[in-house]
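Quick note —
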Amino acid sequence: MERENMWKQYSPEQLAELEEVSSRYKECLNLGKTERECVALAISMAEAKGYKNLKDCIAGREELHPGDKVYAERMGKILALFMLGTGRWKKSCTFFGRILTPLVWMLSKILYTKMRIWLIWTRIIMAG
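Predicted structure written out below.
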């Protein structure tokens, strides 16, 4: 069974849009190397789209209404974006994803050592 190449199905407009999204994604990867950098970048992007800091809203005793967009961050490493709706909490609030920065972990375990010769088991885990 041969699969059809999806790249051949895109129109020139869709390819231009895909290229624009890809270049923005690469820019975000270059600017956000750690969780804190990613959170700071995401906050600046969210504020440009009209999101308000939930702490500021609480401190100013600002009343929130359906359609309001707020964010909450913790220790510069965790970010939650919300768009408020009407009705019950679970059905009316939209929660947007989480941030995963590219990580590489290397786990090693010495299996055997004799006369300064070591046999080491190594496993590399990539996330993000």
